[in-house]
UniProtKB/TrEMBL annotation:
Residues 36-107 form the Cupin type-2 domain. InterPro entries: Cupin_2, RmlC-like_jellyroll, RmlC_Cupin_sf, UCP037087. This is Cupin. Pfam families: Cupin_2.
Length: 127
């Protein structure tokens, strides 16, 4: 058994603060990583997709719009208390709809690495 207190923040490749939780490095996990992500007020991630792994998100606080798909032409809005599943290779870009409050979420992936296999995405390429 391993307990991890998420007190170390890293900036993800997508440009968002991440508080490290369970990973191969922190807990010896071989197939899972779970962190807390914060989207600052009015903030957004860089557009990206996850190379070969699934992501599950539980929104703890806030309202987040996620643009997704080819050219980021589709959209879903999630509020606190909702889950969001992102399949591998689906381009997406979450943004906090509040200008005054941060959005916080628990993010789990079937990739044990703290620095996940993220590929930056240019939506203009598929426009």
């Amino acid at each position: 058994m391993v307990t991890v207190r998420p007190d170390r923040e890293i900036l993800t490749r997508q440009g968002l603060p991440n508080f490290l939780g369970i990973s191969g490095a922190t807990a010896g996990s071989t197939g899972l990583c779970m962190n807390i992500v914060v989207i600052p007020p009015g903030g957004q991630a860089e557009a990206h997709y996850h190379d070969g792994y699934e992501t599950a998100i539980f929104l703890l606080e806030g309202t987040v719009e996620t643009l997704y798909g080819d050219g980021l032409r589709q959209s879903v809005v999630n509020t606190a208390g909702e889950f969001l599943f992102i399949p591998p290779f689906v381009p997406h870009q979450p943004r906090n709809l509040s200008a005054t409050e941060p959005a916080r979420a628990i993010v789990a992936r079937n990739d044990p690495n703290e620095r996940e296999s993220v590929v930056m995405y240019d939506p203009e390429r598929d426009a």
